[in-house]
Amino acid sequence: MTSDTALKHEGMKILLERLGAVEAERFIALMRREPFDYTEWQRNLFGDMPLDEFLKKADEYSKATEA
Question: What are the start-end ranges of the E strands in 1-67?
C-alpha cells in the first residue's frame, strides 16, 4: 500500500501533468469547497453500465491518450 505522502505526491503530479497548474488548483479548490463522496460520485458516473462496456470504454480511452 502506498503511503499517504506518496499518494498525494503522485496525485498532484498527475493533476499538474493533465490539467496544468491553474486548472489543478481550481480542481482542488472545487473539491474542498463542497462535500464529496467518491463512492456516490462513482455510482452516479457509471450508473448501471455493464462491466464489458466499461472495460471497452476504458480501453478506448487508454488508446486515445497514449503518447
Answer: none
